[in-house]
Inverse folding.
């Protein structure tokens, strides 16, 4: 359980930064070099590489060096772990909002019938 918690911590830490989320969006389209990932964020190769390292530690990206180019690929399976965690809270809020909707519908029914009790 601790191992899973550490993985989730790493995933959410990686996702907490807008630059890294932008890089993941680029990688969802296909493989990109670290230079490609740096360009839209107007940052250096070294700066982009630091963000890629965080994504690698979280297991969200795999980097492969071919020649002098560092190619990155999205590892989407790790995102499923974060989604599963979030789904728990989605169910929590859906149940409460359904209960609230049912209560409000019941109140509307009483109001339209003229019953004020």
């Amino acid at each position: 359980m601790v191992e899973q918690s550490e993985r989730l911590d790493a995933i959410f830490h990686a996702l907490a930064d807008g630059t890294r989320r932008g890089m993941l969006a680029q990688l969802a389209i296909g493989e990109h070099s670290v230079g490609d990932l740096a360009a839209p964020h107007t940052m250096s190769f070294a700066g982009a590489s630091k963000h890629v390292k965080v994504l690698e530690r979280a297991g969200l990206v795999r980097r492969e060096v071919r020649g002098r180019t560092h190619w990155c690929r999205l590892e989407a399976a790790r995102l499923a772990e974060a989604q599963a965690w979030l789904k728990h809270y989605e169910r929590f809020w859906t149940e409460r909002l359904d209960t609230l909707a049912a209560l409000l519908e019941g109140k509307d029914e009483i109001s339209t019938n003229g019953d004020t009790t």
User: Anything to note?
Assistant: The mean pLDDT is 90.
